[in-house]
Structure formats: structure tokens, C-alpha cells
Amino acid sequence: MLRYIYAFLLFFYVSFGQEMVKYCSAPPFLQEGTFSNLFLVLDYSGSMADYTYHEGIKEVFITKYNKDKTYYGFFIPDKEYTEKCKRVSPKRVVCYYEIADSIFSLPKFKGSFLNFLYMTRVDILRWILTGGIVDGDYLVLSEMPYIWQDENRQRRIEVRIKLEDAATYDKASGKVKGLLQEIEEYAKRPRVGLLIYGGGKVEGEFAEAESPIIKSWIYPTFDYEKIIKEINNISPSGGTPTGEALDEIKNYFSLKEHIWLNPSVSTKNTYQHPYKFDVDNDGKEELVSCTRNFVVLITDGAWNGHKYSMQSGLICENNSTKIRNPADISVGYACAIDPAKPAYKMWKGGKADLVKNIRGNQNARVYAIAAFLDSSYGLNSIKNTAIYGGFIDIDNDEIPCLYTNKPTPYPECNLSNKVCAAIFSKNCENCGSFLPLPPQTCPEWDNNRDGLPDTYKRGDSPQELKKAITSIFENILKNLASSTSVSAFYSRTKESVIATQSVFYPEKKFEDKNLTWLGYLYSYWFFNSQNIQNLREDSNENKILDLLEDSIIEFLVDDKGLLKVNKYSSTYTGEKKEYIETYTSLDEIKHLWEAGKTLSEKNPEDRELFVGIDGKNIPLKEISIIKEYLGNPDTFPTCLGDTDDEKIYNLIRYIKGEDIKGCRNRTLPNGNVWKLSDIIYSSPKVVNYPEKGFAVVYIGSNGGILHAFRVGYISKEDLGEHQLAKLCNSEGNCFHDKLGEEIWGFIPKNALPYLRYLPDPDYCHIYFVDLTPFIFDYKKRKILIGGMRLG
Questions:
Q1: Percent of the chain with pLDDT over 90
Q2: What is d(CA 163, CA 174) in angstroms, rounded to the nearest whole number?
Q3: What are the boundaries of each domain within the chain?
Q4: Which of 37, 119, 309, 658 is deepest in the core (most CB within 10 A)?
């Protein structure tokens, strides 16, 4: 056992009775159905009432219209419509449109032109999401702002399209249809929540009545009609408090009280616990840990806060910050929250835990969509928000790659910002998430290497916006399955990295037999240069990172939810070159090592397994000492034997890795026994020990053991052309026979009474050492804190 680690196992006090109880605690994401929430966060600030294709001034939009261009919206672009208008008041006109049924019908207007003329930004959003507002036999556009008719008069126009002549009309259902109606038809679909924001308060001599920051709130629901109705009914107005809106979402998923929801704005449904679902369809909700949560932000402007003033004496509350010259609003000061801040806190690279007393990590991933946005700093903010709210923390440093700071307290805009103070009036807005992105991208937030954040999309035109929103919805629906955990070990140059990935199988077929609850710990090369990062297999199985020989691999989930691994060749600089083939199983990948397979080949008697009792590490083979902690042998599975001593002896043999006749089978076709149990919530942690000459990865499994596996040593010696590193047993020993081997295993005392369930031939599943190890340096020692967490 490695004596330079001081290990502490945290556990809950557990009791056990004399009778055998059928414990069963399967991961909720393996159950039938989808336990997920999708929260829409929609910007309904004043600019969303703007026209989409022109500025609303007659002289301007007449010159802007291009008859050779297609303009999209509620009118079918290539159809011709007749118009009937009537004045209902001196300054209000209602116009009715339907597709012309005759060449003699007059007047006639092309649908494309009518879209150009009438569609506002909020109309486009409804065109995409809901299909539009329906009133009887007509689809109704939002009431048009004033349109100039002459120099002295303005008139508001209400536009009504005959329902079956609208572009979103679905003949099969006889109703309009948007993306939300399409998602509602999925057998497995997320609950959808809604937050519509846009408002604020002006203080001082130009004070105005306060407009609610949050215009509408609907708790996640399977009743999509509630969501659709609210998106259609709310009108845009006010400022752009994007950070405050995301902060409210973070509070909800943290099970905290509302902060930004004004009491005057009533919620449209009763409270819905984000982590409770009707699992058995019996009307009773149960807690589902690790519910998948997604936040989709759609905004058309740069954030600018919730409280405004021309004076500097603003008092900011609820962790908002005073900023000077806020974006896109004519005031001197504002109180605001940078949206990157709550986005980061509710995700932290996939490892945030918003509710500590629910097992697993409860978090929410943020997707951000820029709609009709052309300001560079506004786009920067949305991209940075997407990065901080959506990156995958591969290297466990808690910040996106190529970034050097967390957005707490950075990025923030405030008066102490040195850049802001130096160039006061010009660059005050260019701080926090308004700052430009790094000049290069990297896999933690640009895995598909398209040069943009993976959770960011942009739509400058209606069709582009529809494509962007559709793409993100499709991505969410395809990725509702649980993900695996990854850790990495860097060499000194950071060009060559060993990435480790834990995976579990509730059941896996080996030739003619199925084995259950198996754990795997894979290792790969990770190429990490300043401009290029990618994951690689050891294609020629020589344990050397060959730029040209070792193929680049990319993981994805297809439309059916099945894992695919695409394999590509590499250029001499490390970039992806040509597609080679697709793997459909992780077993097809040429790994550097896989700990489960290596452990299956180890003689059970050669394993260094210890039990923690009263501060001492007792070898598992010391049966006389540990037997009193194993529970009453009368409750053991009958397959373990007849007498008490026989049952205890065979249980210890089973835990070490011997199969017992009649007990749950783990024997592979080659005769070896699979000894690594499922790894569900525990993530691998890699620690380098220069004094020992190799790195170790620690991880817990639901076989009741905290494992220490040898990662190896990254060597730079005796390399050929285009070879960057090789993996050795240890420094000075460049053989490979010890790679991935189990160095030792530690069983906490409170796991002992539950080990008896593992050999049960009817074993369902329970959690044991389920917590990700926590490791830190103290003086000259490394301290490891493991934990059971019981799932």
C-alpha cells in the first residue's frame, strides 16, 4: 500500500438488522422515461418589438426591400395574398389576409413582401417556437408599432392571416405548429419551464415606474400549452437584465427562494420541485438525483442590468454590481449581474453541485443564442456566457481551457476595473463577459472544432435563428443520457496528457453470457498544444504518442441515442485530417490501458485489499478481526455455504475476486473474473508522485472499494520523428506490464455489513464508495478524502 497517502473515508452511520432485506438502488437515469428539465429564458426587452427587416420608417424600408430575396415569417413567401383593411379607430387599422384564389383577386401582395413589411423580432420568435397566436379562424401578428402614412398621421395596424393560409399551419392537425409542439410529440421529452424577462427601474430625476424584471415565470411542466400561451401573450418592453434572469434560474435549481421575481408577477402554475418526478406514473412524485437540467437563453441585446440612474449614488442589492455607461441604454449608471457569473456557478464544467443534500451533482448546463445581434461586445458576452455555462472540465481546474479566471468576482463590470478607470467613458462596457474570447479555441468548449463555443448559436436572420434554435433543441434531446467521468494527467510540457475515463455497464454480454454491474476505467492520449487539442487512441499499441500514427477520436451520440466514436487521421501538426471509420463500442478503441481488464487478470490472492477499522488498515484476509463487522451470517445468500464460518470465508473470497458457485456470476469466457464493480458517481482523480516516479488514479466503485490504479510515467526519452511522449511503468522503467494495475484497494468499515449483497444471484444494485475522491497537499504529504455518500 502507498504509505505516502493519508486516507480518510467519510461515511454515514448505517445500521443493519438480522433479516435479509432486498436493497435496490438503481441509478435513476437507467429507468424508463426521461427525467430532465429544459428552462427557456427569453429576452423580451424593448428591442424585441422592433421590426425584423427594416427600421419602421417608410422612406427607409421601401429602399431596403429586395424583391429577389426571400423574407420568412407567418406569410408563405411564394404565395400571393389579398388584403382587406378597415379602420376601427382614428389611429388603428385591422388588415385581413388570405391566399388569393384567383388571378383577378386584387389587391395582391407577395407573402415574402408582407413578411418584410410586418414581422417583428418577437413575431419571428413565435414563428419558430409556438407557430403563432391563434384567434378563432385567424393567426394574429403582434400589434404593429406606428407606421408612417404621411407627415402628420400615424396608425397602428393589426394583421390577421386566415389560419390555413399561415406558414406555420399544419394540415394534419388543423393547428399551427412550432418547435415546442414538435418536441411535445416525442415519447421522451423534457419538462419545460419558462422565464421571460425585460424590465427594470429608473431612479433619480428621470424616475419611471418600475417594470418587473421577470415578466413571466412558469415552473417546468409537461403541459407545453401553458408555455406556448405565455410566449404568445407577453409583450416586449424594458431593459435587458440577462444576468438577473440567469441568477433566478440558478436559485431555482439550488432550491432557493425567488430573488428577482416581483410579487406582482404571479407564476402561471404551482411550484414544481426540479428534482422530483412521477417515476411510476402513479401520481406520486419521487426524488430523482442527477436530473438533467438545461437552460436555453435567447437574447437580442447586450445585458445592461435592472436599476438605472444618471447619478453615481446607486445602491445595488442581491450581489449585483454598479457599472458605468451600461450597454444599449442612455443612463450613466446601472446595477447589474454579469450573466457569465450565474451560468458558471450552475454548471462549473459539469461538476457543480447546487444541492448538497441530494446524492450526485445537481447542476444545469447553459446554451446561449444570439438573435439579430450585431454589437461585438454583446456577442462576446453571449459567447462567454455559453462557454462558462457549458464547458466540460476535462483537466479538473474548474475553469474553461485558455481562460485564466473564474467569473467570481471576474468577469464583472465595476468602477474599480483598471481598464475602465483608465479609459473611462469609452471602454467601461468592455469588461467582464464583454471582453473578447481567446484567439484560439479548445476541446473543453469547442469539441467539434468549428471555432465557436459548443453551447452557442447565432441567428442574424429568421431562417438562421430557426436553424440555431432547432440545432440546440436537437442537441439537448440527443444528449439526455448520462455522461461518463474524465480526469487527466499532464506531463511537464502539457503537450502529452493521459486522460482517464470511467464507465459502467448495468449489463454486458460476453459471448454467450451476460454479466452485471461492471466498471471500466479507460485511458487515452490527449494531445494538448497551444492551438490544438484532441483525444487519441494508441492505434499501433506501442504506448507512444505518435502524431501521425495515433488516430484522433471523437465521441458523439446519434439520433437514436447510441454512442458513436469517429476516428480520424492526423496532420504532423496534430490537426484532424481525414475520416477513417466509426467505432460503435468503447471496446473497439485501442486504449493505453483499461483497469478493469487488467484487474480481471490479477490473481485474487495478490490483491492488496485493506479495511479501515478504528484508524488502522487491516488486511482483508484477517478474517478473525473483520468478521464481526460483516453482519449476521444468517442473512447471507445461501450460495455462500451452510455454516457461518463457510459463509464468511466465501464472502471474503468473493470480494477479492473469486466466483462462488451459485452466486452472482462475474466469470468471463476466458475464465478470469471481472473484479471492478460499477463506477457511477465517483469521478477519477489523478495524482502525480515525482518521488515515486509515476502517477496514480483514485476512484471509488460500488464493489465497496476505493481503488488506487497506476497511471504510469510520461517519458520524453528515445523518441522518433513526430513522437511526443511514451508511457512507462515508472521513471527509469519503460516497460508496460504494470500500467493500469491496482496498487491497493481500501474498504471503509461501514461498507462491510453490505458486502453480503454483492454475491446474491438476484442482486439488484446498491451504492458503496460512491463519492469522488478529494485530494489536497498538506505540508509534505498528500491527503486523500474518500467517501461513500451511498449514491
A1: 60
A2: 9
A3: 36-50+178-312+338-478, 58-118+133-170
A4: 119
